[in-house]
Amino acid sequence: MKLNKLFILCLGALIISNTYAATNDAESAKKRLLEPAKQKIHKAQIDLNALLKNDSNDLIIEYNVGSTVSTASGVQKRNFIASNKQAIRSAYSGAKGLTILRDYNALPLTAYRINNRDTLVQLLNDPNIKAVYPNRINTTNTRESLPLIHQPQTVQNGFTGAGTSVVVVDTGVNYRHADFGNCTGTNTPLGATVREGDRLPDDTCRVSRAFDLAPDDGALDDDGHGTNVAAIVAQVAPQTKIIGIDVFRTVTSWTGEIQRGAADTDSIAAINWAVNNAQTHNIKAINLSLGTPGRSYNSICENSYTTPFANARAAGIVPVVASGNDNFSNGISSPACTAGAVSVGAVYDVDRENGLTWGPVGNQCTDRIIRADQISCFSNSGRLLTLLAPGALITAGGHTLGGTSQAAPHVAGAIALLRANDVRPLDANGHIANDAETIDQTIARLQDNGVEITDTRNGLNFRRIDLQAATRTLGFLPPPQQAPVVVPRRIS
């Protein structure tokens, strides 16, 4: 008995000693941090004390390699990033406790696991490290929309998204559903390549790629959210191809709850893939119907998506992000708050006889009277909000869901329609312009021609997309002239 007591006392002393040592190491590390390092941590909204006390930290590191947005795209850009990354990394060749979790060849970012405080301090103090970001976990933003945005008339006028692609970063896509054509596999069958009326032939698969960047869960879509979102894009833009990227994995929340979530590292990897393949697939938009719940932003936030979004836009890809479903009337969620994002809030698509209550217990809201174009009570709002679109309730891909998650893909599909390769603005005389619109001009077109709606919670006015109005002053380049086929004459 005395021996057992002695063992317990010694074990307790050892635990206290280790805790004291960890605290002491953290204090020592804090004293060695330079002021610029502390500013990096503050800007990333990371708890400095928790960061230094943790035995292990997963961080997304942004290198100071100069502007990559203006650098030429493709191989030259990747080589520029790689050489600069390697030059900075060489200083850490012998660093302890530094493991690469994920690298991004089209972005000046790397995700690291750091379990050595000396290495952590060295990284934070390094002027070649531009910024650090936490690896947050994002959740899906789930809460007879086509007539409301005048999509049928727009498609009838020839705006179908032909030749374009939209990337859907979500829980996957069940491409076997009829909303994506008669798919037996991705891009299979390929079907005809000619236009037939206002849609692709029935034997054409609309999903050109579908893969996991989070650990492969063995399912096309184990949730249904991504399939619903992808099908909304497919309905809005009936000739656009869908690229589904699964970034969701099983995670444990800070409360110990097991849930599905998307790590920033995986979502950024999806953006990295899109930038690398922008020209190959003619990608016009990337849809992120996800976000970090429970926190609102009413000014542009700088985070781990800032540089990826800037590089996506430079490659001609518009990041479309759901504003979030937290009932906030004075702020939207992240990454919707990021510079370069087109943030989208939700409205109802039709009048409904019965009211609806949204959200979990403790954070619920109720719309007792529901009218078409009414902003849903759950929809995050504020001066950063870019556009509104139908988001409650939307049936697509075999699922009926409501949320800003469903509003965002309406806008992603709209962008594919407006930014197809043969679409050009018309001048005052109705003549076709030579140059396509910039991304900012396309967004302004959706805003200027949208239906004005007032959010009664904050008195702010926003525009709900109207495709027919937005395409009224757009036209099409004439098809390229095909050279006549010359059949050589046989001389006998």
From TrEMBL:
What keywords are annotated for this sequence in UniProt?
Answer: Hydrolase, Protease, Serine protease, Signal
Q: Which InterPro entries match?
A: Peptidase_S8/S53_dom, Peptidase_S8/S53_dom_sf, Peptidase_S8_Asp-AS, Peptidase_S8_Ser-AS, Peptidase_S8_subtilisin-like, Peptidase_S8_subtilisin-rel
Q: Which GO terms describe its molecular function?
A: serine-type endopeptidase activity
The coiled-coil segments of this chain are: none
**Residue span(s) of domain Peptidase S8/S53:** 161-436
Give GO BP annotations, semicolon-separated. proteolysis
What highest taxon heads this organism's lineage? Bacteria
Q: Which residues form the active site?
A: D170 (charge relay system), H225 (charge relay system), S405 (charge relay system)
First and last residue of the signal peptide: 1-21
Record-listed E.C. numbers: 3.4.21.62
Specify the enzyme's EC class, one word: hydrolase
* Family according to the record: Belongs to the peptidase S8 family.
Q: What is this protein called?
A: Subtilisin E
Q: Which organism is it from?
A: Acinetobacter stercoris
